Amino acid sequence: MVNILVVDDDPEIIDLLRLDLELMGFHVDSASDGLTALKKAEAKTYDLIVLDVMMPKLDGFEVCKRIRATRSSASVPIVLLTAKGTIEDKIRGFNAGADDYLVKPFEFQELMVRMRALFRRTGTLNKEVNTPKKDEVLSAGEMRLIPSSLEVVLKGQIIKLTPTEFEILYCLMQHVGEAVSLATLLQEVWGYEADEDVRMLRVHVGGLRQKIERDHKHPVYLQTVTNVGYRLNPFVEAATTP
Questions:
Q1: How confident is the model at residue 191 (pLDDT cuts 50, 70, 90)?
Q2: For all residues of the chain together, what is the average pLDDT?
Q3: Measured distance CA(102)–CA(100) in Å, rounded
Q4: pTM for this one?
Q5: 3, β-bridge pairs
Q6: Helices (DSSP H) in the chain: which residue ranges?
Q7: Does the pLDDT value for residue 38 go beyond 70?
Q8: Which residues does 239 contact at the CB level (< 8 Å), separation at least 6?
Q9: Does the CA dihedral 184-49-119-25 come out positive or negative?
């Protein structure tokens, strides 16, 4: 069964989401403050965390950041809920490690679209129908991408990725050495018609570079292609990039 943690200090939102999600066949746990949410995320494996930003004890940004720093739960997909919808708030959420972002008030169907896009990335939809998850290890140059654990092995070092970081790298590894447009990445990674500013994609790419590059300010693996998008060059570490 798919396990979801819903975190919000508004009991009505928790009750509504619990009802709708349980009707969809999911198992739902809940927390009403950030500290309790963090403890639950550390004690149990979840397939998704729906996390409010403004909460007592620890806000959602800090909870998200701490979850990402915990190896046992570092790869769980996280959707942030907030009343603020500015691009600056979204960038802050993505920098904290969130995979997606919903602005209150929102329709449950909109949440379901985001959830299923995340489940598609992690193979959770297969879990729902009790089919085995495909475990295709992709290799290119110095990189090996492992879908089952959302990890990249780079020069023998195992690096844990968030679901969004994994999907970006997965898409680029399908087109090694080729320029992949921002529009293609947005469609492939988010799995629906994303109308958000491309800055949210760039924020995730920046986080990915910090993990895989020796110097993220001068990337050699994940290269920028001016006026197009990005290109993955996993073969030559000494390459020069824009």
A1: low
A2: 85
A3: 7
A4: 0.74
A5: 27
A6: 11-23, 34-43, 60-68, 87-96, 108-122, 124-128, 163-173, 182-190, 199-212
A7: yes
A8: 220, 223, 233
A9: negative
